[in-house]
Design brief:
2 copies of one chain form a homodimer. The first copy, chain A, is of the alpha/beta class and about 375 residues long. Chain A is built from 13 helices and 17 strands. In chain A, the strands form 6 sheets. Chain A has a 6-stranded mixed β-sheet. Chain A has a 3-stranded antiparallel β-sheet with strand order 9-8-11, with no helix packed on it. Chains A and B meet through strand 5, helix 3, strand 8, strand 9 and strand 10 of A and strand 5, helix 3, strand 8, strand 9 and strand 10 of B.
Chain lengths: ~375, ~375
């Protein structure tokens, strides 16, 4: 169990009390109109550390005051939702963003006063609470859809159950939204392979690829949910396993890699908890399309949205290195994309027996 | 392991040979121009058996002749793809619809002759092959995205691994695309709860709802994939467990229930393998919205697409009974929908401790 998780599990309520409830109480006791300070999540307060290749929230703060008419509403929302989270904990319930919205939409059933105009409002407040407490919402007991799966030579412990992830048959262990409680008991794996597509994961699992290569395999159902990202990060940092990400040869696939590695600017404060800056990309890159001679039948014409996304990516601070600038420009010039499945044009075995071993040898893990 | 699966696992190649290869060979040996007969999958050949409440393919056949110019192309596609499936089996590979397309798109790499204009063409041929062989494509080794999960007091065997589905921690066993190889070893469950939403599944799993009520819980990630459907059917038919489906209170949720129970008209031939005609609906129905007094903050205005879908559903043969006609008309009159999460307006525990136990008591399993 990670230290962070131990903390979260036992102390969410007390952290919320310490960081939110008590400051308000102290101000009230002094006869002050209460206010809350929150690190700003606006783009101007997000820095990219070029050397460490990581996103950081700056030190700019915003204040939420009961004394200012326009701030009363978010102030009240913050306090009510913080309280609702403590209540769920007390009831032993985990909840979703949507549950929190419904539970807090108005002060009383049928009241014409609305606490929340839409779920957008409660979502933003929960982001504020994450920044204020330093806890992920999952650690506060707020879950989201979980789409990830894991298989390989790793034994974990979750809620008292010992789970051998190498004994899941043709299935896998589905990664829950909250993974901080998961304890890593034992592994003989040498690395982690993250594969964009669930079908490719299933194909490799069917062939026991992970057994042959002594790897943990993870898939996140395309764009990964936060539970999958946190799990990959923990495998990398706590077990010291190198992580390799394999995606489709298109800007959407490359974006998925960047989500595992960096996350998104708009949620920069989650970087420390969710991003895996050591994750490495093993294609399929634009140049791999030609290097691995994917035949023209396996190529798709880039669509407008692809070109737009690639143009945007050229400007992302984390794609400013030589490799990505060259790859993105090659893509924009050739305007061709491809998919993992197109490797089957060579043979059904090509992905498992040629492409992946090749790439992993290049990175020195095979 | 189901009888069907044993058959499929060992005999896919020989079934394809017997049903497709050998008839062609015999015709050629007799000096005839070969042809293939396929049960028609057109709507006119789909019957709904009112009493048994099941979809059936009629006996109308279409012929695919080498002697007719317009039929040469699909004839050739059928033979090539059948061969490609046998090849994948021989290589020990499972493949996706997309892999099959890429592998067969043209006779030679770079050839200007195209075997397949688009994946749509190979998908249709694979449907033909399912009808001709009586095998699901999964049984032929063609997988699709798998999104389902399962948890509860059930021990299974898959690829030699014994998997206790009650020992998966906060996760679950992810259901693969091919579930025919899964053997049911032991269960103490009294029923199966299928829940539309992954987040509701996680919430109930976190609270060990399945343990308290001695149930197997399944979720299919919204609209279920075929692996999840086949698994639910097998749990019902092979273990004799009653199946209950819980969905959002909107036409999309009700449609999901109908997919578990009936499947779709356009794939009527899969009915026997995938549909679970004994699955029962435990809401949330249109009348449940009012019966369980979901407050107005938990109601959403029906959108045009919802109304259109409900109008269509009124005409489906399997929604012709009194219950569904009444429910759909109520929905169309009130034009209000809701979601499982809206029950949290009452309390975060309401779904687990009030709604589901209530409904299951009504059906006599609690």
């Amino acid at each position: 169990m990670s230290e962070q998780s131990e903390l979260a599990r036992n102390q969410t309520a007390s952290i919320i009390r310490t960081k939110i409830g008590e400051p308000i109480l102290r101000q009230l006791q002094k006869g002050q109109v209460p206010e809350l300070e929150i690190l700003s999540r606006s783009m101007e307060n997000v820095d990219f550390d070029e050397n460490a290749k990581l996103l950081k929230l700056g030190s700019k703060k915003t204040t939420r005051r009961m004394s200012k008419l326009s701030e009363i509403r978010p102030f009240m929302q913050t306090v009510l939702i913080a309280n609702s989270i403590i209540e769920a904990k007390r009831e032993g319930q985990v909840v979703t963003l949507r549950d929190v919205y419904y539970a807090n939409v108005s002060p009383m059933t049928g009241s014409s006063q609305k606490t929340l105009k839409s779920q957008e409002e409660s979502n933003v407040i929960i982001q504020d609470l994450e920044v204020m407490t330093g806890l992920l919402r999952e650690q506060m007991g707020i879950i989201a859809d979980a789409k990830g799966s894991l298989v390989g030579p790793l034994t974990i412990k979750s809620r008292g159950d010992v789970i051998p992830c190498s004994k899941q048959g043709d299935g896998a262990w589905s990664i829950p939204s909250m993974v901080d409680d998961v304890e890593f008991l034992d592994t003989s794996a040498k690395f982690v392979l993250v594969i964009e597509k669930g079908t490719a994961f299933q194909r490799l699992n069917y062939g026991r690829w992970w057994k042959k290569h002594n790897a943990i395999m993870v898939e996140g159902g395309g764009q990964p949910d936060r539970g999958t990202r946190r799990m990959v990060k923990r495998l990398n940092e706590e077990l010291g396993l190198p992580v390799f990400v394999c995606c489709d040869a298109d800007p959407y696939g490359w974006h998925i890699y960047s989500v595992y590695r960096f996350g998104s600017m708009s949620l920069a404060y989650t970087f420390e908890m969710l991003a895996c800056p050591k994750a490495r990309f093993i294609g399929i890159s634009a140049s791999d399309i030609y290097k691995y001679r994917i035949p023209k039948e396996g190529l798709l014409k880039a669509e407008k949205a692809d070109l737009k996304r690639a143009e945007d990516m050229l400007k992302y601070p984390w794609f400013k290195d030589e490799f990505w600038q060259k790859e993105l420009k090659l893509f924009l010039r050739r305007q061709q994309k491809s998919e993992i499945e197109a490797l089957s044009r060579h043979s059904y075995k090509f992905l498992a027996e040629t492409y992946l071993p090749d790439k992993l040898r290049e990175h020195g893990v095979l």
